[in-house]
Amino acid sequence: MNDDRDDLDGHTIEELSDYLDADRKPYDPSIENSPGCRIALDALERLRSASLRLLEAEASEEPEPDENWIGGILANIGREARAGRRIPIEHPDPAADLGITEGSVRGLVRAAADTVDGLIVGRTALEGDVTVPGEPITVALEATAYFGHPIPATTELLREAVRSALALHTDLLIAAVDVTVVDVHHAPPRPPAGDDAEEER
Predict the structure, then answer these.
(1) Distance (Å) of CA 58 to CA 74, 147, 191
(2) Tens of pLDDT along the chain (201 residues)?
(3) pTM above the 0.85 mark?
(4) Which DSSP string corresponds to the chain?
């Protein structure tokens, strides 16, 4: 609990989840102005629709869906949102000192993973010394695959999405994107097209 509060500027992942439940009202500047909290909020919002649909789908087929699975992902989001190490960004001006936080990069990896159908990522990690330019880095991911999606093809799409996002937004030298599938669940039903339109208004 104390670790979560340190990582999220005094807040916990449970408090952020409650804040989302209230549609981020009343506006809380201590949350909205915190980079760590905003990374966690983005991840929670992406997780929410998928996880709720997944639990609903499993509840119709299994008497007791495993809520610990969702809890594990929530815990990972809280840990990964912390700033972590500072990753340098190259600039032609030698006087410029640019960088991005490790937490931001993990958030970027999660956002890229969410564009891939057929799985949901539970844990992300950057292995290697990200503080040294040109150092080979391995992105380690743990994911849950959705039943009916071919795992080899789906994980390859995940690797490509993560590599593309990191190449576009960072100077990291990605040696590998390792994906470990730790579980298989029934795929959540897609929301009706009208629901997306409602949310965009």
Answers:
(1) 19, 11, 15
(2) 444 454 677 888 778 878 888 888 888 888 888 877 877 787 777 666 655 555 555 545 544 445 565 566 655 565 655 667 888 887 777 777 778 888 888 888 988 998 998 998 888 899 999 999 999 999 999 998 988 899 999 999 999 999 999 999 899 999 999 999 998 887 665 555 555 444 444
(3) no
(4) -HHHHHHTTT--HHHHHHHHHTTT-S--HHHHT-HHHHHHHHHHHHHHHHHHHHHHHHHTT-SS--HHHHHHHHHHHHHHTS--SEEEE--SSTT--EEEEHHHHHHHHHHHHTTSTTEEEEEEEEES-TTSTT-EEEEEEEEEEETTS-HHHHHHHHHHHHHHHHHHH---EEEEEEEEEEEEEPPPPPPPHHHHHHHH-
Q: Rounded to 5 degrees, what angle do the CA atoms 4, 5, 10 make?
A: 155
**Token pair in block for residue 167:** 């190449």
Altogether, the residues listed in the chain come to a count of 201
Residues 6+ away with beta carbon under 8 Å from 82: 6, 7, 8, 36, 103
Rounded to whole angstroms, how far apart are CA atoms 70 and 122?
9
Residue given tokens 């795992």 in the structure block:
151
